């Protein structure tokens, strides 16, 4: 309760400072609206029939992209973490692809997949694969060697060894990677909506209100929505991480 109270005080203090700065004219209200205006627009979004499809499209695409990234990265990370020669063979390809900015691939992905939701999902999944992959590979190297040798000595079947030893051991690191990937995925997803266009998405909502109407209050209301969703998802993942793997400290290799 004390921690939550301190966070609330910090948030309220920030909002009050923002309001005062705008009201006394240090920032132009038409460019940076005060929080009282932004929050009023934010709560109005949930009764706006035009915004709701954008919000659903962005959040649903985000979850799909993150799920695809996890499905790809965890098995690949276990494989590369287990087989050293394969990891060394693929490391040049992985190290080449990892730093590529996903938004730079927008023209290529549009040519391959079209300009629908599949484009933003593919780019968000591509960008969010890497934290999960590298955390999983790192976790595989941190597993107790004696534990692995014991399972081999007992002739534990591979499937049972995977679910009873490997996955529980790498879970703290992998879930940390998922939390990192969730933020990256949301950023790339909204950026793709903004840059590549399309019919729905919060990125398009922000783009249209900002460039066509010049309504910074609506733009910031959309940004507040994205920030709130990102915060809630991160807190949910963190809570799940503490609950599901309470026997281990959350770790990870960034």
Overview of the structural elements:
- The protein is mostly helical.
- It has helices at 2-23, 35-45, 51-82, 84-97, 106-113, 117-142, 145-153, 158-196, 202-212, 216-244.
- The longest helix is centred in the C-terminal third of the chain and has 39 residues, at 158-196.
Spell out the blueprint of helices and strands.
Blueprint: H1 2-23, H2 35-45, H3 51-82, H4 84-97, H5 106-113, H6 117-142, H7 145-153, H8 158-196, H9 202-212, H10 216-244
Helix pairs in contact: 2-10, 3-4, 3-6, 3-8, 3-9, 5-6, 6-8, 8-9, 8-10, 9-10
Spatial extent as radius of gyration: 22 Å
- Taking pLDDT < 50 over at least 5 consecutive residues as the criterion, the unreliable ranges are 250-254
- The span between the termini is 30 Å
Q: Structural class from helices and strands?
A: mainly alpha
In the CATH classification, which architecture of the largest domain applies? Orthogonal Bundle
> What is the strand tally?
0
The coarse overall form would be globular
Number of domains: 2
Mean pLDDT: 87
Order of helices and strands: HHHHHHHHHH
Report the β-strand fraction as a percent range: under 5%
